[in-house]
Design goal:
single chain
Length: 557
């Protein structure tokens, strides 16, 4: 049953039947439910609820009316009602329709999935990729840029001849593109490295150069080990690491507990933006504000967050922020943002003749990987191209904690010769307008976030509906609370047993501790092979999630 409100009265009432049984009929019962529901939304469950779908009925001209008409058209038909790709609606005879006031599908789901999926050549195959938190697929235009760099400008930088100057300019342009993408003040604040783990180790070593014995660093056991072990290593130079523990009742990192740890000797607060196990989002702007008030820097591991939300380091107020670009649709390369004032204070890891104020070279010994840096800048091109295809009214609340160029998908064959459509950047009409580029990126993230919330809800609804499954992290798909990295365990089957049973179906998921070893150990799950993790991104579809749900339903019987 789907209703929408029209001046406080039901505008439409339809008898909906699942598997030949009436769920809710027009009449006094319906009127009572309507009057008791101030949002104008109703929850209707079938007798064998297995999954859920979310929509917003606040706009009668949008999803509500269209969706109600579709349900009415199939009333009494127990066969599957396939979802409309634009509305994100699908229900089966033995499944429920769950209506919540969180998504305006007419606005939020206006993501061009055909365009997005055409940008990733690997999606031309049959595999369903749901291990994206371990490493996303790579954009075709990123690979094209890497190839072009290697074949045309693969020379050492810093020479006076033309090709060397071009190569240097490309590296600077890549830094500038990422500086703009994350809201950094200058390209000098962008450091490239082979992985987030190595960048954090290098940062810790540089920070250790300015620590005094007794200085304190706050870390958590929720983080990936990359943002823990490197700081513990500084105990060798007299630093003290204090752990900000999860709240025993809620499992969250409580801000009050952070306040109790902050003191005059605190030099750094190290925390993840989103847990790669829980999927939960931490309030980084507030954490950074409290750290700075105490005179401390903030180092944020944004690896699990960056594939799902726009990052604005200035709005967050952080000093250091790391992300793995190979998890944000690029090559195996990582990026560290270092705020200029903090960056100038830390030590240098480069040769002795590199001045301490030589940014970013002081943390790039041996130089970064030029071709991967140039290739990775194609991520920003893609985001702006995707955003340019989103209608203007979706460009809301896209940048993290803050509450373009055009492109085409062309019908040329990829390198495998399979004829898959490929993404190709086209010169944008507003390429010289930074505000227009930012608006395009914001539009892309708004659409990505909304689409991923629907994907997460489809899977979480299935998991919530089973008493033998335990969701590790928030059970809600609310975009304000989590990203669509979803971990769970089963009462009987171990995590490896589940994943190995899913593997033959061509769906890529994973089990383990995912280098959040201390967290999974603290949860008592190491001996059972850790957790099953399903990590979704914007190029996944509801059909793919349903395919996984159907397989899990069979495996878990």
């Amino acid at each position: 049953m789907l209703l929408h409100r029209s001046q406080g009265r039901p505008a439409q009432a339809t008898d909906v039947t699942f598997a030949g049984r009436s769920v809710l009929e027009p009449g006094p019962q319906l009127s009572a439910l309507w009057e008791s529901n101030p949002t104008g939304l109703l929850l209707v469950e079938s007798f064998k609820a297995r999954c859920a779908v979310r929509t917003l009925a606040a706009n009668p001209a949008a999803g509500a009316r269209s969706l109600a008409a579709q349900v009415a058209a199939r009333s009494g038909d127990p066969s599957p009602l396939h979802y409309n790709a634009r509305l994100g609606f699908r229900t089966l005879a033995d499944r429920s329709l769950y209506v919540q006031p969180s998504l305006d599908l007419d606005r939020d789901l206006d993501i061009d999935l055909d365009f997005a999926r055409a940008a990733f050549p690997a999606l031309a195959g049959d595999t369903v990729f749901m291990d994206n938190a371990g490493g996303s697929l790579t954009l075709g235009n990123v690979a094209d840029r890497v190839r072009d760099y290697l074949l045309t400008t693969d020379v050492q930088h810093g020479a006076s001849y033309g090709v060397s100057a071009q190569a240097s300019a490309r590296l600077h342009e890549a830094r500038a593109r990422f500086a703009e993408n994350v809201g950094a003040a200058s390209a000098e604040e962008i450091v490239f490295g082979p992985s987030s783990t190595i960048l954090l180790q290098q940062l810790a070593e540089a920070v250790g150069d300015v620590l005094a014995p007794g200085d304190e660093i706050i870390a958590t056991r929720v983080d990936h080990e990359a943002n823990i072990g490197c700081w513990l290593a500084l105990e060798a130079v007299g630093a003290r690491v204090r752990f900000w523990e999860r709240n025993a009742q809620t499992g969250d990192l409580a801000l009050g507990d952070l306040d109790a740890l902050l003191g005059p000797r605190t030099r750094m607060v190290c925390v993840t933006h989103a847990s790669n196990i829980f999927g939960a989002i931490n309030p980084i702007a507030e954490i950074a504000r409290r750290a700075r008030a105490a005179g401390a820097w903030t180092c944020v591991d944004g690896v699990a967050f960056a594939p799902h939300r726009g990052v604005d380091v200035a709005a967050l107020g952080v000093d250091f922020y790391v992300q793995s670009l190979y998890k944000v649709y690029g090559p195996h390369l990582a990026l560290l943002y270092a705020r200029r004032e903090a960056f100038l204070e830390v030590g240098s890891l480069n040769h002795f003749f590199y001045a301490r104020d030589r940014m970013p070279s002081k943390l790039e010994p041996g130089n970064p990987n030029y071709e991967l840096a140039w290739g990775a800048a194609g991520i920003v091109d893609y985001l702006e191209a995707l955003g340019a295809r989103v209608r203007p009214d979706t460009r809301l609340n896209a940048r993290s904690e803050a509450p373009g160029p055009c492109a085409t998908a062309v019908g040329t064959a990829d390198s495998s010769g399979n004829g898959a459509r490929r993404f190709a950047a086209a010169p944008p009409a507003n390429a010289d307008d930074p505000r227009a580029r930012r608006d395009a990126r914001d539009a892309a993230w708004a659409a990505i976030t909304a689409h991923e919330e629907v994907l997460a809800e489809r899977l979480l609804a299935f998991l919530r509906g089973r008493e033998d499954l335990r969701i590790i992290g928030p059970t809600s798909s609310d975009r304000a609370l989590r990203v669509p990295t979803i971990a769970f365990t089963h009462a009987r089957l171990s995590a490896p047993e589940i994943v190995e049973a899913v593997d033959p179906h061509g769906i890529g998921i994973r089990h383990g501790h995912f280098h959040a070893y201390r967290l999974v150990e603290d949860l008592g799950l190491l001996e059972r092979g850790g957790v099953v993790r399903v990590s979704l991104v914007h190029y996944n579809t509801l059909d793919e999630v349903d395919r996984l749900v159907d397989v899990l339903d069979e495996v878990l019987r």
